[in-house]
UniProtKB/TrEMBL annotation:
Keyword set includes Heme: yes
Pfam family, one: p450
Family per record: Belongs to the cytochrome P450 family.
Protein name: Cytochrome P450
InterPro entries: Cyt_P450, Cyt_P450_B, Cyt_P450_CS, Cyt_P450_sf
Keyword terms of this UniProt record: Heme, Iron, Metal-binding, Monooxygenase, Oxidoreductase
Length: 426
């Protein structure tokens, strides 16, 4: 898909390294190449640790992470995503006349959050995901058809990104050319908010991101005029009931949530698919076992989720003074809630740092927990299962190109840039 490589290359540095608190760590390589090694100090017996360099409390143990995620009334999600007002004035000016920029399901609380979440739950039920399974399988096969005869592929740009974008775009109801525009806009959002580039580059990114908003605004107004049986129409109908012309406030809200739905479905699934295949091929005996026994695929997906987590951490803010694992945390404090560390907690997972697709499932927090648990969890499992079924059937000889480590980027929340390049041969 045109534009997929653009996102992969754009997500380079996010200046919020959730785990960079190890006292003797002076270089970033440990975090970017093996973030789990940097999290071990955080799972200390004393509970959450305040890290002055982050001006945040780091929550690293599985039970503590689960508790924070469960207690949404005490730990606010309002600062989970950057907002337009956080941008420099010249960058923000490029977005001033665009439609969007409102809160979404990820960074809202209470009744507002439940209102945004309801149409997503209704649109991504197990039955709806099952109905989409043939499309997912067809897309996975089509992508493999495109490179199977070449003997090599760069897997992130050649398979993971286009599959993730194509699937979420299809469910929303986007035309293929609009999916490509949304992919490009996603890259620009990452540049605009995170990449340490000059102001001119950020201004250009904001201009392109505004164009993505305009595309979703046009999509919403077309769906208002001609509703269809897709997730985009369902979200529009839930947030803006009625049949009349959308008000400006409704357009702002609908565009924000459509845009977030696409970005979330794209930037979480892409690295998960990539690291899943990377880790299986690094453990050759497990890849071969998977090829011989397809019944192992569901377990392989769960282990891939646990072992290399796409959303390394999420932010929360205390609404009032709270006690967590015996530690007093003041009101208004920022917490870095480390999902990846929870998934490697030896108190929950035996041999936590080993990759084992035969591991008994359960306990992983890759999709979060509680009221904000990811509504797309089942959809990703379908994408991952289709990926493994297609690759093990069609390319059982798949392997890493000699000396291919998997080129890791510098993104932390989420690990969208964690796997930028993965060269495979067969």
């Amino acid at each position: 898909m045109q534009g997929a490589a653009d996102v992969r290359g754009a997500a380079v540095v996010v200046e919020t390294p959730a785990l960079r608190f190890t006292r003797n760590m002076t270089e970033s390589d440990i975090w970017f190449q093996d973030p789990y090694a940097a999290s071990r100090d955080g799972r200390r017996p004393g509970g959450p640790l305040f890290v002055p360099a982050l001006d945040a409390w780091v929550v690293a143990r599985h039970d503590d992470v689960r508790e924070v995620l469960r207690r949404a009334d005490d730990f606010s999600s309002a600062n989970t995503l950057p907002m337009d007002e956080h941008l420099a004035p010249a960058v923000r000016a490029e977005l001033a006349d665009s439609v969007g920029g409102r809160r979404v399901v990820v960074n809202s609380d209470g009744a507002e959050h439940r209102r945004y979440r309801a149409p997503l739950l209704a649109g991504l039920t197990p039955a709806r995901v099952e109905a989409a399974a043939p499309f997912v399988a067809e897309q996975a096969a089509r992508l493999v058809d495109g490179f199977a005869g070449s003997g090599e592929v760069e897997f992130v740009g050649g398979f993971a990104a286009p599959l993730a974008a194509g699937v979420i775009g299809h469910l929303i109801g986007l035309d293929p050319e609009d999916v490509a525009r949304a992919v490009h806009g996603t890259a620009q959002a990452l540049v605009m908010h995170f990449l340490p580039v000059g102001e001119d580059r950020k201004i250009a990114a904001a201009r392109d991101f505004a164009a993505m908003r305009a595309m979703f605004d046009d999509f919403a107004r077309r769906r208002r005029a001609e509703p269809r049986d897709d997730l985009g129409t369902s979200l529009l109908t839930a947030l803006a009931p009625g049949t009349g012309e959308l008000t400006l406030d409704e357009r702002h809200e609908v565009v924000s949530n459509l845009q977030n739905l696409f970005i979330a479905g794209f930037i979480t699934a892409t690295p998960l698919l990539g690291t899943m295949v990377l880790n299986l091929l690094r453990h050759r005996e497990q890849w071969e076992a998977l090829c011989a026994e397809p019944d192992l695929i569901p377990g392989a997906v769960e282990e891939a989720l646990r072992y290399d987590t796409s959303m390394q951490s999420v932010r929360r803010v205390t609404k009032a003074p709270v006690t967590l694992a015996g530690v007093e945390i003041p009101a208004g404090a920022t917490l870095m809630v480390m999902l990846a560390s929870a998934n490697h907690d030896p108190a929950v997972h035996e041999r936590a740092d080993e990759f084992d697709i035969t591991r008994a499932g359960g306990g992983q927090l890759s999709f979060g927990h509680g009221p904000h648990a990811c509504v797309g969890a089942q959809l990703f499992r379908e994408e991952a299962g289709a990926t493994l079924r297609t690759l093990t059937e069609r390319l059982p000889g798949l392997r890493l190109r000699p000396e291919e480590p998997g080129t890791m980027g510098h993104t932390v929340i989420p690990r969208d840039g964690s796997l930028q390049v993965l060269n495979l041969v067969w």
